[in-house]
Amino acid sequence: MKIRWQVNVIRHFGPGQKPARLLFDGRKASPAGAALAGGMTIDALDAHDGHRLTKGHVGCGVLPALMAMSEAEGELDDRAFLAGLVIGYEIGTRAGIALHRTASDYHTSGAWVALAAAALGARVLCLDNVRTREALGIAEYHGPRSQMMRCIDAPNDGKGWLGLGFGGRGLRGILGG
Q1: Can you tell me the mean pLDDT for 5-12?
Q2: Strand 28-29 to strand 20-21: parallel, antiparallel, or no bridges (unpaired)?
Q3: 158: exposed, middle or buried (C-beta count within 10 Å: 0-12, 13-18, 19+)?
Q4: CA distance 65 to 98
Q5: What letter does residue 125 receive in the DSSP assignment?
Q6: What is the pLDDT of residues 37-70, one digit of tens each?
Q7: Which residues does 59 contact at the CB level (< 8 Å), separation at least 6?
Q8: In the list 12, 78, 109, 150, which could disulfide-bond 56, CB 3.0-4.6 Å?
Q9: Residue 105 CA: distances (Å) to CA of 111, 114, 149, 150
Q10: Are 148 and 107 in contact (CB under 8 A)?
């Protein structure tokens, strides 16, 4: 099943030396590209989970990030993967709850799932405490603090994030910036 944004992911996030496969597709991309396409695919298929205290979907980002990093690094032990998935859900859920307690408006899952994905990446890569803290700090700083209700209340007729995957013009602009 080829999805248009997956074509853009392959073009812009090529496999490199440590590739990971795209969900439902099998073509190879970088771990970041495979995780991005996986999260977008899960969301597009509306196959994600939900948690009422986070008001979001931990697994939409955690599962594809863990799959991509594990495959790219050759860490394919099933017990380690399941432990990582539980850890990712725990970190993502706690980060989501903390964000919603400190911010008065509703934020999308990416605002806090980025922390879980960074923690899982640090775990798979066996980073030390200092580098793990740095990875988490980068994820928290650069994680999208997007205000979901603003997008719902005033849709932008497809020229926003969804337009990046389908048209490719926005994606090329972001990557070129």
Answers
A1: 68
A2: antiparallel
A3: exposed
A4: 21
A5: T
A6: 999 888 888 777 888 787 788 988 999 999 999 9
A7: 42, 48, 49, 89
A8: 109
A9: 12, 18, 8, 9
A10: yes
